[in-house]
Amino acid sequence: MEEKLEKLRFNYKLWLETEDGENILGDGKWKLLQAVEETGSLKGAMEKLNLSYRKTWDNLKKIEDKLGFSLINRVRGGLDGGYTTLTEEGKIIVKIFSQFHALHDELFQKSSEKALKDLH
Length: 120
Hints:
The protein is built from five helices and four strands, in the order αββαααββα. The chain is of the alpha+beta class. Strand 1 and strand 2 form a beta hairpin. The termini are close together.
């Protein structure tokens, strides 16, 4: 039994939800928005994260509909091709998630390690 317990790990995910408890946006889309900011491209971000274009685009539009504002600005075509940037609201959401993780990930890791030691 103790050997099986040693293989267990705690984990957590962060998400934004409506006051009714409806999930809007979580860590996965936060990582997508970060990757858009890094690559300057929705396509590049999806390739970096190995995501399907159609499904990701559909989910992103649903999120924006629920929020009532856009998270990304897309500019198509041109000599250099198109590019994608985050809206101010998109940047704020990335910042909020990043700050939360910076403040809490290490604390969570230490707390979960202590809890697992107590199980052994």
